[in-house]
Design goal:
It is rod-shaped and about 115 Å long. The longest helix has about 80 residues. By secondary structure, it is mainly α. The protein has one helix and no strands.
Length: about 80
């Protein structure tokens, strides 16, 4: 074989190896970034659920407070 053909084949193999290596590294980096985003979304969703539960508890507490205020008002009017 000619030395030009051999050097062309070596260059082709280097180009293919570099391209595939870049694709694999890029894919791994993308997967890592997606995993990190998924973790952040999970933390956010947990926070939203906790806030929702706190709001529900707050609504129940507010209703109990209104009931207690109403009972106190009834007692005050009854003893006047």
């Amino acid at each position: 074989m000619n030395s030009e053909i051999i050097s062309a084949l070596i260059a082709l193999l280097g180009t293919l190896g570099g391209s595939f290596g870049g694709i694999i590294i890029s894919s791994k980096l993308s997967n890592y970034r997606i995993e990190q985003l998924e973790k952040k979304v999970e933390k956010h969703n947990n926070l939203i659920e906790r806030v929702y539960r706190l709001e529900q508890h707050d609504a129940v507490f507010d209703e109990e407070l209104k009931t207690a205020d109403h009972r106190i008002s009834e007692l005050e009017t009854a003893f006047k």
